[in-house]
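#data-curation
PF: Archiving a pair of folding outputs for the training set. Convention for this channel: one message per protein, sequence first, structure tokens after, nothing in between. First:
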Amino acid sequence: MNGVTLAILAIFGVLAILLYGLKSFVKALKDFIDQLPEFFASIRRAWEAWQEFKRARREAGEREGSQSRPSA
């Protein structure tokens, strides 16, 4: 009888630890998923800033090129 009792307690102890770990994993996953919209918005802002930077450099190069050419 003692062996059966110990086996039952051991099984429920392992189940309790597994459930605690699963709960922690689900919470971490939820936190990760909650941060995704902000992450994608940040990527979009970085992309738009990069495009604006490239456009400004291109326009500056065009202006510099047109000013260095003598007018006819």
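PF: Second:
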Amino acid sequence: MPQPAQSTLKTEPKSLQQQISEAVQNRATPISQLLRLMSALDADTTANENLRLQLRARIGAPLTA
């Protein structure tokens, strides 16, 4: 049984900062993803405090905001 051709396109992994920035801007990002990003951010000792505040604000923001 033949295998379908796999894409050889490789993308660079996004930095945590990029992921958080995109998640904060995208109102469709699920809360579970936001919480995973917060967990990763808490584990990063070199993380910018401003990122942490932005993500916390986004997690607590109403959906209609």
